[in-house]
Amino acid sequence: MSKEMAFTVFCIENYKVYKSLSGKQTVELFRKYGVFEYLQEFYDILHTVGYQYINRDIDNYLKNRNADIPA
């Protein structure tokens, strides 16, 4: 598994816990709003910060796309 793929799995797992979602719900949300592409594009920066920052960053990314995300 590539380091980028491992990072993506890390983000899925942490975001699902953060938002109390299932893995399936998280993957569907990430696919629908392009979060996977975002994580890949900004891997070099995002993999150097903590998971709390990443979760908030994903929230901001989704809000900017008018995503319907759980509170």
N-C termini distance: 32 Å
The strand count comes to 0
Structural class, by secondary structure, is mainly alpha
The total domain count is 1
Largest sheet: none
Order of helices and strands: HHHHH
Q: Supply Rg.
A: 11 Å
Shape assignment: globular
Let me know the average pLDDT: 94
* Strand percentage: under 5%
Helical percent range? over 70%
Counted by DSSP, the helix tally is: 5
Low-confidence stretches: none
What does this structure look like?
It is built from five helices and no strands. By secondary structure, it is mostly helical. The N and C termini lie far apart (32 Å).
Give a short synopsis of this structure.
The protein is mainly α. It has helices at 3-19, 23-33, 35-41, 43-46, 51-64.
Task: Please describe the topology of this protein.
Blueprint: H1 3-19, H2 23-33, H3 35-41, H4 43-46, H5 51-64
Helix pairs in contact: 1-2, 1-5
